[in-house]
Amino acid sequence: MDVFTSEVTMNRKWNVKNPNQGSYKKVLCVCSAELLRSPTAAIVLSRKPFDFNTRSCGMVPDYAVIVLDGILMEWADEIVCMDATQQREITKRTSKPVINLNVPDVYEYRHPDLMRLIARRYKQFSLALTGERNGKTKVRKEDGGTPAGNTGSPTEGAKQGSADGLAMANGHAV
């Protein structure tokens, strides 16, 4: 590692804990290439009603503009991904909460349907997590809540009575 690379890494590591980021929840949004779904998710989750500090990245180095790495995962309080394969790979690398929104790669960047889907699925996750903390589940199956143990695949979610499929790992499964 040359001096420049070492200095960049040190700067990035310091920025993980930069106090000027405030107290906003830090959410890392992940998809394959960081071109369509994850940057759109970062926009949606940075706005009201969520108001999170967000970043986006991709998992496939040959395509991603910003590639998922340990520093980005260290920065995040929570990681949001788009499919079960991504969720499995990310959970192998971190113990932080990983939420699979189960968003297919069929949308254009910032497409209104994509933005609504991301917001709806994240809200469903939030409601389910709140209900789980209170000892009850508030998400109805027809709203897209996924029973514990679901890998997050749309087919599996449908088999278990879920309309949309939504899963979390390294935290509370919904």
List the helices and strands and how they pair.
Elements: H1 3-16, E1 26-31, H2 37-46, E2 53-58, H3 70-75, E3 78-81, H4 84-93, E4 98-100, H5 112-133, H6 154-159, E5 167-169
Parallel strand pairs: 1-2, 1-3, 3-4
Antiparallel strand pairs: 4-5
Helix pairs in contact: 2-5
Which structural class fits the helix and strand makeup? Answer: alpha/beta
Low-confidence stretches: 136-164
Helix content: 25-40%
Number of strands: 5
Mean pLDDT: 80
Strand content: 5-15%
Radius of gyration: 16 Å
Oligomeric description of these chains:
single chain
Largest sheet: 5 strands, mixed
Number of domains: 1
Describe the structure concisely.
The chain has 174 residues and is an alpha/beta fold.
Question: How would you characterize the overall build of this protein?
Answer:
The chain is an alpha/beta fold. It has a single domain, classed as Rossmann fold. The protein is built from six helices and five strands. Strands 2-1-3-4-5 form a five-stranded mixed beta sheet, sandwiched between helices. The chain is globular and about 45 Å long.
Output the keywords:
174 residues; alpha/beta; Rossmann fold; 5-stranded mixed sheet
